[in-house]
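Throughout our pipeline, every protein is held as a single compact record rather than as scattered files. The remainder of this section carries one protein's record, kept here as part of the documentation.

===
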Amino acid sequence: MSEQGAPQAGTHAPNRAERGIERLIFNSRWLMAPFYLGLVVSLAVLLLKFGMLLWEFIVHAPGSKESDIILGVLSLIDVSLTGNLILIVVFSGYENFVSKIDPGGHPDWPDWMTKIQFGGLKQKLLASIVAISAIQVLKAFMNIDTVFEPNRLGWLVGVHLVFVISAFMLAISDRWSGDHGGE
């Protein structure tokens, strides 16, 4: 604004309709909140599945071969990593797109919970997906003596490589844009 109260050249004062539309668009972010609540429910379902896998693992462990024990542990890790992935999406998605989370009064909250940026979110998501796909490849490899399915193993390795290459390309892209972001 100039000294006389008139808008400066190149600026424009929004009218009432424009402000209303902007307010509606801004408040539409709250439509994402039920998605994140749904993911919290899916985390509870995943916990149920983890409990069932753990129980089955414990019951069958005494008579199992070493490779079966390793496969059981890998299955538990796989479900755990999927749970971590859900938490990353819930916390960072809510924080980045809906509303800030107030960590005040919660000294035990991890630092990342309210500090992850969108670029960091993409990297954490891809890293989790790479880890999950690596476990799937490892499980198939560990099971190669009992069931050898070359097509399935080829697809698993191929998809895993695509995830690895995608994560690498994203990291390079983020580094380049970070180094040259202001230019």
In short: The longest helix spans residues 66-98. Residues 18 and 154 are 54 Å apart (CA to CA).
